Amino acid sequence: GAARPGSIKERLDARRKAESTVGAASRVRRHVEEQVRGQVQGQLAKARAFFEQGRADYQAGRVIKAAGALELAVQFDPANDEYRALLETAKRESRGARIGLLIHQGEQAESYQQAKQAIHAYREAVALEPDSGKVYYRLAKLVRREEENDREALNLLRDAVLKDPDVVEYRLALGELYKELGLKLNARREFTEILKRDKGHEGAKAGLKDL
């Protein structure tokens, strides 16, 4: 049939409307993209600032503080290998520094007969899993004496021996606790291990004789 009057105009209007809609959508998309780009750039700038702060602290020997700043740098820019590598180094060193500080606090508290404070400091140190058995042993002695907690002391002494198998002082304490708890086979094993390392050890000999 013949085209109705106005139908071409209607089609042109519809096309213009569609183009206008597409144009508006494009403008919205560009605006969103600019916002996202701005946010990303802001995050990267924050990451860089935290990294620079962390690196300065690390170079100055403030490893605990450095680890905190570098943690934030990695949160803002997780894909940055440089930030992550320095964070891992700082975390490893700050863990050692933190353990040393807590052990020092515990020893100071012990020297002033502040058993509760010493236990608290040593427990915090143990939670960081130090490589040496020393703090496990000291904490075990305190929790036995102050809290009469043989179960915790036993676990701590086992850990002390695992960390430092050749320190006979730790093995002797573990063997004596096993003996007191009636775990004779375990006690015998520890006393025997001591005598392998020190044939004339009087404590281990006396322990075996008691068994």
Indicate the topology.
Layout: H1 7-59, H2 63-76, H3 81-111, H4 115-127, H5 134-147, H6 150-163, H7 168-180, H8 184-197, H9 202-210
Helix pairs in contact: 1-2, 2-3, 3-4, 4-5, 5-6, 6-7, 7-8, 8-9
Structure in words:
The chain is mainly alpha-helical and 211 residues long. The protein is built from nine helices and no strands. It has helices at residues 7-59, 63-76, 81-111, 115-127, 134-147, 150-163, 168-180, 184-197, 202-210. Helix 7 (168-180) runs antiparallel to helix 8 (184-197). The chain is elongated, with a radius of gyration of 34 Å.
Which features would summarize this protein structure in a list?
211 residues, 9 helices, mainly alpha, elongated
Question: Nutshell version of this structure?
Answer:
With 211 residues, the protein is an all-alpha fold. It is 83% helix and 0% strand.
Report the biggest beta sheet as strand number plus sense, adding barrel if it closes: none
State the helicity in percent bands: over 70%
Shape estimate: elongated
Mean pLDDT: 93
Number of helices: 9
| Total beta strand runs | 0
Query: Which band does the percent of strand residues land in?
Result: under 5%
